[in-house]
Each structure stands twice: as structure tokens, then as C-alpha cells.
Amino acid sequence: MSFATKAVAWGRLGALFFREFALSVKDVSLAVLDPRRPLRPAIVAVPLDVKSDAGITLLANMITLTPGTTSLHVSEDRKTLYVHAMNASESTVADIKAGFEAKVREVLA
């Protein structure tokens, strides 16, 4: 992969992170300001396609740095990442895989 391609991949990952960060700040702020707003906290199991230590670490840290989510544990076989989401939906796992994990795999390819 050329330097330019890598730079573009890192730029896309950064843009995705800041977009998700901004959306999460809004969601957490609304939850704090309106305590009647229903939340759906959950611990979800995210099956991992990324295998390297660097990839798992980058993915877990990006999830933890996003308000409202925390990476809790990587399974012993390194195939599952457990994530606590303050407001989980049916698409939480799919969103993580299609967003953060896909971009992490792209930058580490």
C-alpha cells in the first residue's frame, strides 16, 4: 500500500471517529439533560475480524474514547470484543463492524 493510500485511509478513519464522537456527544448530552429519556444500556459481543494486537487495541480504544461506549474485554481467543453501550440498539454491533472495524482493517492492511 502506497504512502498516499495509507494517508487517505488514516484520514477516513479520523473523519469517521470525529463524526461518531460528535454524534455520541449529542446523544450523551441529551440523556443527561433529559433524565426521562429512555436508555437501553447493554453489553454487546462484537465478533472480531481484525486479528493483530495493534488492530484490536486501536479498535478498542476508539470505542472507549467515543462517549457512551466502553470496551470491556477481549476474549481469550481474541475473536470477540465485549462493549458496554449506554444506549444500544439492534444495529450496535453491525455499526461497529461496518464503521470502526472496517476502517481499522483498512489502515492496517
TrEMBL record:
It is a multi-pass membrane protein. This is Sodium:proton antiporter. One of its GO terms (cellular component) is plasma membrane. It is found in: Cell membrane. Its main location: membrane. The keyword Transferase does not apply. Belongs to the CPA3 antiporters (TC 2.A.63) subunit E family. GO terms for molecular function: monoatomic cation transmembrane transporter activity. Keywords: Cell membrane, Membrane, Transmembrane, Transmembrane helix. It holds the Pfam family MNHE.
